[in-house]
Amino acid sequence: MLKKFIILLAMVVAIPFITALFIKKDYQVERIIVINQPVTEVFDYVKHLKNQDNFSKWASMDPDMKKTYRGVDATVGFVSAWASDNPDVGVGEQEIKSITPGKRIDFELRFLSPFQATEPAYMTTVAVDDNQTEVRWGFSGHMDYPMNLVFLFMDFEAMIGADLQQGLDTLKVVLEK
C-alpha cells in the first residue's frame, strides 16, 4: 500500500515537470494604432522615455512610484528607473538600446522585483500619409523551464497586449489634442 502511494505521489509530482517540457517558453506581443499626426511629431514624442509617464498604463498604476533617470532622454543609453511598493509595478528600469531616427526605438526592460527578468521591447512609427502615423508597440518575453508552466494558467499575450493597447489609446488622445 505504501509503495503504491509513493508511486502515485511521484507521478503527481512528475506530471507538471513533464508537461512543462512541451509548453512554449517565449511569447511576443504587439499592438498597433493609427494616430492623426505626422510621423516626425509622433516619433519625436515617443522616443522620450519620460513621455511614457503620460500614456503608459504601468506608469499610471502607482502615482507614488519613485522614478530616477540616468543620461540624456531620447538617446541611446538613457535609463528610466522605477520603484513601487505596488507588486503589479515593482522595481525595474528601462534603457534605450537603439534608435532609428523617425522609425524605431528599442528598449531593454530590466525587472528587478517582484521577479527578475530582462526583456526587449520596441516602438515603431510608419507614415500612413502626411498626417497619419501607424505606431506599433511590442514586447517579448521568456520563461525558463519549469516556470513556463505559468503559461497554462495565464495568457501573458492577452494581459500585456491589453496594457499595451490601453497605452496606445492614451497616446493617441495625448497626441491628437
UniProtKB/TrEMBL annotation:
The keyword Protein biosynthesis does not apply. CDD domains: SRPBCC_1. The keyword Transcription does not apply. InterPro entries: Polyketide_cyclase/dehydratase, START-like_dom_sf. It comes from the Bacteria. The chain crosses the membrane at residues 6-23. Keywords: Membrane, Transmembrane, Transmembrane helix. Gene3D superfamilies: 3.30.530.20. Pfam families: Polyketide_cyc2 (PF10604). This is SRPBCC family protein. The lineage of its organism: Bacteria, Pseudomonadati, Pseudomonadota, Gammaproteobacteria, Alteromonadales.
